[in-house]
């Protein structure tokens, strides 16, 4: 089949004004970014507040292989399929990050005949939201260092500063740096570093606030460090929240684009799923629920990371009630978690699928804990054999849930109609969605609940640094915040090499960061990094622009 970018470029796009008209959005609320992209004024949420909500469908997955299992593709394809069978459907997904785009994973606009378009523009600069987040984040860093340079009247201890800088690229050389070199005129010399933009707390804030007033309040309470007397210092102490909000003003509005089959898509926000909460913005999701019969959204990586954070952070904050879940599985991921090497995943191996099924079953049990109905989508690849597909379907049926073959990559919405009908049936059921823990539960107990009940860990341990942070946060009154676990997506443990359904393992919490603006505590485990590096041969080596100005090599 043709490359993704060739398929996307050959698609006849509908003017974005027509897509908005079909959603019954008045032109006064449409902010065009050219002919095929627009922002929708978030004032629409107030305008449509009395409209009933559509059905909210979450797409999550089993533990992936390093190349991913096509969760975005299934999300987009399912929205197209729902549209094909007569429902007004909207895809609501995250914006791609330039880091993985030029690194290993490529873009995040789907694939084949289940893509959001214009694919090249969405995968690159899009409407500038990520640039706004990057600039707002680094403005705060500059104001903070400027404060240190001019008298430091707040008494900030430079060694306690928690606010780093960000850039939306994978650049391992920036993980740990020294700034302020070259003499007194260049500021205070201190150690710091860069994170990738999608790990910025401001990105999380953007995706969890619902108004300009709430944005300013969230920015104001961001923690930047401590005084010499060990008292916390917030953005409000530096007076930076107004300027930061000004940079983020346009980024608050959700972005409207379309799929290859002209299904509306809201693509907004992009916190990483392993080092942040991994969901698109509340504004986009809530707006989609007012505009469509079904909103199909996704959460980063597998159910242990993405679904847990979607349920316990996003749904809790937005008072959302998910109606159904789609759990994406692939034959190659089952074989991978059944012990097959990546180079042999295209070879038929029924026994490996049986072994790897334990991983899928674990993810199914995670979803069951939230009391939301679900189905399994088998995202088909060309190397899958009929024997393998039939065997997986049988395993699912034997364990009390249904699996549906999905061919949206090769056939678009037509390849997902069976799945769409099953999702509609599941979404019509009453459910008793309940978050995993209450906010009043102690911090350590919340971490324990996630590690034991979601990951299946036998023990949870803490480094001396994490223990001290835990005590400090209790003392400072930050106990009633949800937990955002930063963990490898490739294993239930904190060791990426422990694949399958691992048992008898220990989760080690190395550090706990207080993201007070976003409203959660981030627990870093294992070898998780907030600034990825490029692989030996990054995707950037394949991207170019031809003589007609068309970008080639993106996927």
What does this 3D model show about the protein?
The protein is an alpha/beta fold and 555 residues long. It has three domains: 4-126 and 251-427, P-loop containing nucleotide triphosphate hydrolases (Rossmann fold, 3-Layer(aba) Sandwich), CATH 3.40.50.300; 129-248, Domain 2, N(10)-formyltetrahydrofolate synthetase; 443-525, Formyltetrahydrofolate synthetase, domain 3 (Roll), CATH 3.10.410. The strands form six sheets. Strands 1, 2, 3, 4, 5, 6, 13, 14, 15, 16, 17 and 18 form a twelve-stranded mixed beta sheet that branches. It has a four-stranded mixed beta sheet with strand order 19-21-22-20. Strands 7-10 form a two-stranded parallel ribbon. Helix 7 runs antiparallel to helix 11 and helix 9 crosses helix 11. The longest helix is centred in the N-terminal third of the chain and has 21 residues, at 129-149. It is globular, with a radius of gyration of 23 Å. The model has no long low-confidence stretch (mean pLDDT 96).
């Amino acid at each position: 089949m043709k490359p993704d970018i060739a398929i996307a470029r050959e698609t006849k796009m509908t003017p974005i004004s027509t897509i908005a008209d079909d959603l019954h959005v008045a032109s006064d609320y449409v902010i065009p970014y050219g002919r095929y992209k627009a922002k929708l004024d978030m004032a629409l949420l107030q305008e449509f507040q009395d409209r009933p909500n559509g059905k909210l469908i979450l797409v999550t997955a089993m533990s992936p292989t390093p190349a991913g299992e096509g969760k975005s593709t299934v999300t987009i394809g399912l929205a197209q399929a729902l549209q094909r069978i007569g429902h007004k459907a909207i895809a609501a997904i995250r914006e791609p990050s330039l880091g993985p785009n030029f690194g290993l994973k490529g873009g995040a606009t789907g694939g084949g005949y289940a893509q959001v378009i214009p694919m090249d523009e969405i995968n690159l600069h899009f409407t500038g939201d990520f640039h706004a987040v990057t600039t707002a984040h680094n403005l705060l860093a500059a104001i903070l260092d400027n404060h240190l340079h001019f008298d430091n009247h707040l008494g900030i201890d430079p060694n306690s500063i928690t606010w780093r800088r960000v850039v939306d690229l994978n650049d391992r050389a920036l993980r740990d740096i020294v700034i302020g070199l070259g003499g007194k005129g260049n500021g205070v010399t201190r150690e710091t570093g860069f994170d990738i933009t999608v790990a910025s707390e401001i990105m999380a804030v953007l995706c969890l606030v619902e108004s300009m007033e709430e944005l300013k309040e969230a920015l104001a309470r961001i923690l930047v460090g401590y005084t010499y007397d060990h008292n916390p210092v917030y953005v409000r102490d530096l007076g930076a929240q107004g300027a930061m909000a000004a940079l983020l003003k346009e980024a608050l509005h959700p972005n409207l684009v379309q799929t290859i089959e002209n299904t509306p898509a809201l693509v907004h926000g992009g916190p990483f799923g392993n080092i942040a909460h991994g969901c698109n913005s509340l504004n986009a999701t809530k707006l989609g629920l007012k505009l469509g019969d079904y909103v199909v959204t996704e959460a980063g990586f597998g159910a242990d990371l993405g679904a847990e954070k979607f349920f316990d952070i996003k749904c809790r904050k937005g008072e959302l009630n998910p109606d159904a879940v789609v759990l994406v599985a692939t034959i190659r991921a089952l074989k991978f978690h059944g012990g097959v090497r990546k180079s042999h995943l295209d070879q038929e191996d029924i026994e490996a699928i049986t072994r790897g099924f334990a991983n899928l079953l674990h993810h199914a049990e995670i979803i069951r804990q939230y009391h939301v109905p679900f189905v399994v989508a088998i995202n088909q690849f060309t190397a899958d054999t009929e024997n393998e597909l039939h065997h997986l379907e049988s395993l699912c049926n034997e364990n009390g849930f249904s699996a549906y073959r999905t061919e949206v990559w090769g056939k678009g919405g037509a390849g997902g109609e069976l799945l769409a009908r099953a999702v509609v049936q599941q979404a019509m059921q009453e459910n008793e969605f309940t978050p995993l823990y209450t906010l009043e539960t102690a911090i350590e107990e919340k971490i324990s609940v996630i590690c034991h009940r979601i990951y299946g860990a036998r023990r949870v341990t803490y480094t001396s640094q994490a223990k001290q942070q835990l005590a400090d946060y209790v003392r400072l009154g930050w106990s009633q915040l949800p937990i955002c676990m930063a963990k490898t997506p490739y294993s239930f443990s904190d060791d990426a090499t422990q694949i399958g359904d691992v048992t008898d393992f220990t989760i080690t919490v190395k550090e706990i960061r207080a993201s007070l603006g976003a409203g959660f505590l981030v627990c870093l485990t294992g070898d998780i990094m907030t600034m990825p590096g490029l692989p030996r041969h990054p995707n950037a080596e394949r991207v170019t622009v031809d003589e007609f100005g068309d970008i080639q090599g993106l996927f």
